[in-house]
Structures are given as structure tokens and as C-alpha cells.
Amino acid sequence: ALTIQEATLNARSKAGIKLRWPLQKAYVFLTSEVDRRRAETLYDVLKSMLNVKDLEIGGIEGYSKFSKVLARPNAAKIGPQFKRMSRAVIEYIERNPELVAKDVLESGHHKVMLDSTEAEITKEHVVLEEEVQKGYVSARFDGGVVVISTEVSPEVEEEGIVRDLIRRIQVMRKQLKLQVTDFVKVAIKVPEERKGLVNKWADYIKKETRAVEVLEGEATGDLVQGWDIENEVYFIGVSRA
Question: How many angstroms separate the CA atoms of 171 and 150, rounded?
């Protein structure tokens, strides 16, 4: 589970999605049937660890839906062997990257007639690259690969902002030297375009921060601070209840 979590963190980093923001969907593809069954028994644990709304676990063959291998010409190797045909070989590979990659991976070579001459393209003539379907990023780990959706819906974005607000309130609790058992009152001033956010999530914020009151409006309290969250400024006021 930890290796899957680490790979997911890597994928999040590639996609620029913070850990506190829930993922819309994640896929875990495993090479071993034993590992797949084990992962399925840990479904709820993995879903929580990866902070994902929807999780799909399957065999490694499922990864082909999201990725393809492409061949890029290796001019340094093509030139010395094909000489005058080099340009034609390079252009052919550039026009048929998926087909060339498929044959090279399966049989070690790809044959084609160019200018009435047979050209045999081998592994040394190409550089193989993996391309993941648009809207997704992947990260490999020992035994499989994780694929995550890079889509961040308005609902997911909103939840991510709220989680960031909660973390800032918890930081401010510590700055006020409050005990874990102490209750607080919270007031949050949100950007104009986020009006209604705090009221909508007030109960959740209360639960996570031991607040008896969470108000949206002017930020007042024993400690007031401005915080930058996703390039928007939120002012938070926290007082001991």
C-alpha cells in the first residue's frame, strides 16, 4: 500500500495536485494477480490513503487504455548505417511512431520498403517513449503503475480549498497556544468569487477545528491572519471560545 501511495504522490506532483485535494479518479494496475487481490482487500484503506473519490484496481493489461509507446528516430545511429537513406528512414519513423514501436518491442525490428530498398529498423535506431492519454498522468512502482485523472472539478477544488483553510486554522490554534481540547470561534473573509463557501462547509470546518462557531464575513478574533490559497487571499480570525 505504501509503494502505491508513493507512486500516487509522484503522479500528483506531475499533475500539480496537492495531497490535501481529493482526486476525482485513480487507477492502480498491478502485474501480479496476487498483488491485485491483496490490493482489492485493502480497497477502502487505499482509497483513504490516496485521498481519491473513485478508485479502480486491475491487472497491468488495463494500463494500455491510457498509454502508448512511441518510437522516436535516433539520428546518431541511423546516419552511419542508412547513409543516403537516413532522411527517408527518419521521416518514416516520425510518421509511424506507434507502428514502429510496436514491432520493435514485439520482434526487435520493423521492416519497410523505402525508395525500392528494404530498411530494417531495430531497437538501436529508435528511442522508445511512453505517452499517457491527455487528461491523465502516470507513475510506475515496483509491481505496477498508478494513473490519475488531472481533472479538478469545481466541487473538488472547493473541497481542497476548505481543507487548506482547516490546516491554516489548525496552525493558528498552535500560534495561540491552545490545548487540543480547547474550543474556538472562527471568522473567515473569503474572496468575492468564493462567497458562500464557508457557510456551505461550516459544519465540516467546526468538526475538524473544534470550533463552536464558524462565520463568513469580516475576520475578527484574538489572532487574524491573511493566507494565500491557490493565488487567492483568505483572512482568518480565531478566538478562544
Answer: 29
Arithmetic mean of pLDDT over the chain: 93
Domain locations in the chain as residue ranges: 2-65+133-152, 68-131, 155-240
Provide the CB-side half-sphere exposure for 168 (13 A, CA).
22
User: What is the tens place of the pLDDT at every residue in 85-123?
Assistant: 999 999 999 999 999 999 998 889 999 999 889 999 999
- pLDDT higher than 90, residue 238: yes
Residue 115 region by backbone torsions, left for phi larger than 0, else alpha for psi between -120 and 50, else beta: left
- Secondary structure (DSSP) of 67-105: EEEEEEE-HHHHHHHHGGGHHHHHHHHHH-HHHHHHHHH
Q: CA-CA distance, 118 to 141, in Å (whole number)?
A: 40
By CB atoms closer than 10 A (0-12, 13-18, 19+), residue 28 is: buried
CATH no. for 68-131: 3.30.720
Mean pLDDT across 60-85: 92
SS in 3 state form for 101-117? HHHHHHHCEEEEEECCE
Chain CA centroid to CA 156, Å: 13
Helix or strand holding residue 23 (H, E): strand 23-30
Residues 172-206 have pLDDT tens digits of 999 999 999 999 999 999 999 999 999 999 999 99
Residues paired with residue 112 on neighbouring β-strands, in sequence order: 119
Matching CATH number, 155-240, of 3.30.2320, 3.30.70, 1.20.120, 3.50.70: 3.30.2320
